[in-house]
Amino acid sequence: MTIIKQDDLIESVAAAFQFISYYHPKDYIQALGKAYEREESPAAKDAMAQILLNSRMCAMDHRPICQDTGIANLFVEVGMDVQWDATMSLEDMCNEGVRRAYKHPDNVLRASIVTDPLGARKNTGDNTPAVIHTRLVQGNKVSVHVAAKGGGSENKSKFVMLNPSDSLVDWVLKTVPTMGAGWCPPGILGIGVGGTAEMAMILAKESLMHHIDIQELKERGPNDRAEELRLELFEKVNALGIGAQGLGGLTTVLDVKINHMPTHAASLPVGMIPNCAATRHAHFELDGSGPSFIEPPKLEDWPDIAWAPDAQTKHVNLDTITKQETLSWQPGDRLLLTGHMLTGRDAAHKRIADLFANGESLPDGVDFNNRFIYYVGPVDPVGDEVVGPAGPTTATRMDKFTEMMLDKTGLLGMIGKAERGPTGIEAIKKHKATYLMAVGGAAYLVSKAIKESKVIAFEDMGMEAIREFYVEDMPVTVAVDSKGESVHKIGPALWQSKIAGIPIVAE
Q1: Tell me, what's the pLDDT at 504?
Q2: Which of 112, 275, 310, 456 has the fewest CB neighbours in a 10 Å radius?
Q3: Are 258 and 200 in contact (CB under 8 A)?
Q4: How far apart are alpha carbons 259 and 206 in whole angstroms?
Q5: Dihedral of the alpha carbons of 245, 247, 250, 255, in degrees to the nearest 10
Q6: Averaged over 33-51, what is the pLDDT?
Q7: Residue 284: count of CB within 10 angstroms of its CB
């Protein structure tokens, strides 16, 4: 009989979530480094370099890889020979560990969980409650897998109930392009097959914590149908040409994972969940000897890759920019932004919409005229930081507000992550605005360009408040130009043709 103490589990959970906030798994970094070496798309290669540099910086400074420090997920296996020395339930112990991790004063993590999801959506303030899956198993240990799952990739989760005779490959290849780039590729594609509807999704989520081994599988060959499908999907998904950040390129996924279990003869439930460029997970065990701490990777595990803007990058002064200047930008142009910008996400846009609907004006100090808005919800700063990691959030969530913002505020353009949808693009084209894309998965790197930050409205919203940033040389790419042309359509189409060996014919 093994006795596990309450504080040992709490301390181990807290340490594990701190650990994964700033350490990528070694296998992910090495797989991304190899993909970077193979990549031929300049835009995708630039994005990968930023992600790799950001990862190394976070490992050195112990700061979050991404501003979205994720939904806390725990998969807990409790041996039946374990006895607890505890007054709290297992769920409460896990949540207390998450609470301590996310409120750690030396590395504050962003609280993103809101309660009353259909009503007030009030932030719980400590990222609890976690999503906890528990199994009783044979043995005398407690095994815990932890993962921090970002909202951008979680929002792209898909489920389908196929017929047994339907093609899994066809469904995946039809579905992945509909996910856009908001899940921040390159990442891992997790697929769960079988069981029931809810089990297929759990299987998919668990698969994302498996070791990246697709290259080893290619070398040794498949042993079963699931491994055959992994290889087929790996090749065919990458052949879609979506590429890093959806910019077009050779690598969209670094691996495809498949978990499966028996299912009803009339059913083929399939869940699919992507893991993003901020892939974060780890494993530890408790055997009664005390808390468990994960061994950190070595800095030499990171590829020696530097990032710097290329010679074609344009310097832009946001404080003197004119509409005429933005009209000259083309999809794929790389810019370095210097000057003042405002921030705002979903909740801020909704409150602005409510103000306008009630005939009210914007709060004092909020002036979007001839300005850019950055879709971001940063991590709180620590030490002498101006702001914590501050990477972009998924821009499509703001599409329904884009016409209002461009029509009523004098906004010149927007900065966010991934593509814009048809509604957003139509508004951009109508108002001859622009949409710029920052790299998702490079939040700490981006934050180093932010030299000043202050809250100017909606302070009660926490990370969703409107801030004013002063930035110096913040790297972005023109994703949608004033004519409504999108790099997220042009880039993947070009690279899909290149990968397929189809000659490109100019129109």
Answers
A1: 54
A2: 310
A3: no
A4: 8
A5: 20
A6: 95
A7: 19
CATH number of this structure's domain 314-492, picked from the four choices 3.30.450.20, 3.40.50.2000, 3.20.130.10, 3.40.50.2300: 3.20.130.10
Report the alpha-carbon distance of residue 202 to residue 48 in Å, rounded.
29
Q: Are 20 and 278 within 8 A, CB to CB? A: no
Q: What b/e sequence results for 238-266 when a residue is b if at least 16 CB atoms lie within 10 Å of its CB, and e otherwise?
A: bebbbbbbbbbbbbbbbbbbbbbeebeee
CA distance 338 to 470: 7
Nearest CA among 53, 69, 54, 67 for reference residue 19? 69
Token pair in block for residue 418: 């991934």
Per the structure block, which two tokens stand in for 455?
A: 């809250």
CA–CA gap between residue 250 and residue 443 (Å, rounded):
23
Does residue 159 sit in helix, strand or coil?
strand
- Percent of the chain at pLDDT > 90 equals 95
Q: Are the beta carbons of 442 and 464 closer than 8 angstroms? A: no
End-to-end CA distance of the chain: give it in Å, rounded: 74
- Cα(109)–Cα(70) distance, rounded to whole angstroms? 9
Tokens 């009783």 sit at which residue? 136
pLDDT in tens, 137-147: 999 999 999 99
For the stretch 164-213, pLDDT in tens is 999 999 999 999 999 999 999 999 999 999 999 999 999 999 999 999 99
Cβ atoms 404, 317 nearer than 8 A? no
Number of Cβ within 10 Å of residue 279's Cβ equals 31
Does 350 score more than 90 pLDDT? yes
At 306, is the pLDDT very low, low, confident or very high (cuts 50, 70, 90)? confident
| pLDDT single digits (tens) 393-431 | 999 999 999 999 999 999 999 999 999 999 999 999 999
Q: Is 473 helix (H, G, I), strand (E, B) or coil?
A: strand
Query: Which 3 state secondary structure label does DSSP give 146?
Result: strand
Domain map (residue ranges) of the chain: 1-150+280-307, 151-277, 314-492
Whole-angstrom distance, CA of residue 417 vs CA of residue 411: 18
Pairing between β-strand 253-263 and β-strand 187-195 as defined by DSSP bridges: parallel
Closest CA to 474 of 452, 453, 447, 455: 447
Inter-CA distances, 169 with 224, 236, 297, 307, 434, Å: 16, 9, 36, 36, 36
* Radius of gyration in angstroms for the set of CA atoms belonging to the chain, rounded to a whole number: 23
**Angle of the 90-102 helix axis to the 6-22 helix axis, nearest 10:** 40
Task: Enter the DSSP assignment of 383.
Answer: T
Residue with tokens 């691996």: 255
Please give the model's pTM, rounded to 2 decimal places: 0.94
